[in-house]
Each structure stands twice: as structure tokens, then as C-alpha cells.
Amino acid sequence: MQRMCAGESLLMSTSNDRRQFLRSVFHAPVRLRRGGQDSQGVLHDVSLRGALVEVPAGWAGQVGELCSLQLTLASDVTIRMEATVAHIEGRHVGLHCERLDLDSMTHLRQLVEHNADDPALLERELATLVAQGRATA
Q1: Would 79 disulfide with which of 94, 104, 105, 113, CB 3.0-4.6 Å?
Q2: What does the pLDDT read at residue 128?
Q3: How far apart are CA 13 and CA 102, in angstroms?
Q4: Chain centroid to CA 130: how far?
Q5: Contact 70/76 with Cβ under 8 angstroms?
């Protein structure tokens, strides 16, 4: 299976925002798996490079820990993201995307593109990922 790697970001850049990738606001239930334990969460926004998720009280994840996120868009459409916990602020967890399978990348791209004001910006972001060597077979 072909895999594409990615990392974390937030909204479009502002003058003091160090993030460079377009993030799409998208609220939906997600499943987080870490260390064999499943938790339900709420996705707040997502990009080609990561996601921001609200987790339940008592969620015991740690910065740097590996986890997986599953976002079901339809009965036959699911985005699966392998990620690292990048930051935790209260119940909000920023995930740094490590890997997406090709189908998940395609669905995520369509989701972000649908919500983007400028689809050309998304194309530049994809080109950047490839140029950084984050695409692997």
C-alpha cells in the first residue's frame, strides 16, 4: 500500500503564526487509539499535516506519544491517520500526522479542498509535502 507522510498545522498563517498549512474547520466525532485503548473525541479542525481534537476528561495521552485517529465520513469513507501527540492544552490535543494511506490522503485532500477558499493553495501544500520527501511507496 502506498503511504504519504504529513505533519501538524493550524489555520491559515497570520503574522505571528508559525504554521504553514491550510486547516479546515470540521466538527465531527472521531476515534482515537493509543496503546491499545480507544477513546471517542470530537474533531475541531484538520489539515494535510495534522488535526485538533477535543478528548474526553481523563484522557491520559502524553506529548510525543503515538496514536491513531479515525474519522468516518460515510459508511464507506474513513480517514485513518497515524499521528504523534504534538501538544495538549486542557482537553484539546494537537496531532502531528505521521502517515496516511493513499485512500485516506485522497479523502482528506477532498475534504480540505472542499472547504478551501483557494484550491491552488492546497496544490502548493501537496507539492511541498512531496518536495520534503514525505511521500513513500
Answers
A1: 104
A2: 64
A3: 27
A4: 17
A5: no
Residue of 52, 49, 29, 24 whose CA lies nearest to 41:
29
C-beta of residue 53 within 8 angstroms of C-beta of residue 69: yes
Half-sphere exposure of 14 (CA within 13 A, CB side): 4
pLDDT by 10s per residue, the chain, length 137? 333 333 333 233 222 334 456 677 889 999 999 988 999 999 999 988 899 999 999 899 999 999 999 999 999 999 999 999 999 999 999 999 998 888 888 888 888 877 666 666 556 666 666 665 554 43
- Find cell 485516506 and name the residue: 104
* Closest to 122 in 3D by CA, of 105, 109, 131, 103: 109
Identify the DSSP state of 118.
-
Query: Is residue 103 classed exposed, middle or buried when 0-12, 13-18 and 19+ CB atoms within 10 A define those classes?
Result: middle
